[in-house]
Specification:
134 residues; alpha/beta; Nucleotidyltransferase, domain 5; five-stranded mixed β-sheet; 3 helices; 5 strands; rod-shaped
C-alpha cells in the first residue's frame, strides 16, 4: 500500500517584517518633519543694538538678583518705584525709562515689569543688556 503524502503548503507570509518597516518609516517622518506650528505671517524679532551709546536722560529702574528695586539709584519698594515713576511720567510723558535687571532675574519677572511701566504711560522702555562674549 502506498500512502500519498499530503501536498506541501506554502507557509503564510509573515507580516512582522512589514510592521518593522512601518515603524521605521514612522520614526523617520517624526524626526524629519517639523513639529512646530507654522506662523500665519512673517515675524521679525527685534535686533539688539550693541556698541551704541546708551541714550541719555530719563530714569533708570534697577532690579537686583534678589528682586530689590531702585529708581535712579535709590532703593525703594516696588510699589513706591512704580508710584514715583507714574508721577514723573505725568509731568513728562516723553521720559525715557531704562530697565536694568540683573542677569539672575528670570525674564518672566522682567517682562511684566516692562508691561507695567508701559501701562503707566512710558512711550519708550529700553532694556539694558550685556552683549554675550561668544
Amino acid at each position: 500500500m502506498k500512502l500519498a503524502r499530503p501536498a506541501r503548503r506554502t507557509p503564510p507570509e509573515t507580516i512582522i517584517a512589514l510592521i518593522d518597516v512601518v515603524f521605521f518609516l514612522l520614526v523617520f517622518f517624526m524626526l524629519v518633519g517639523r513639529m512646530d506650528a507654522t506662523a500665519p505671517f512673517d515675524v521679525l524679532p527685534p535686533v539688539a543694538q550693541t556698541g551704541a551709546d546708551m541714550p541719555g536722560g530719563g530714569v533708570t529702574i534697577s532690579v537686583s538678583a534678589d528682586g530689590v528695586m531702585a529708581l535712579d539709584g535709590v532703593v525703594r519698594a516696588r510699589a513706591d518705584v512704580l508710584l514715583a515713576l507714574a508721577a514723573r511720567l505725568a509731568e513728562a510723558p516723553d521720559t525715557l525709562v531704562r530697565l536694568n535687571a540683573d542677569r539672575a532675574v528670570p525674564l518672566r519677572h522682567v517682562l511684566p515689569l516692562a508691561a507695567e511701566i508701559e501701562a503707566l504711560g512710558a512711550r519708550e522702555v529700553v532694556l539694558v543688556l550685556t552683549p554675550g562674549g561668544g
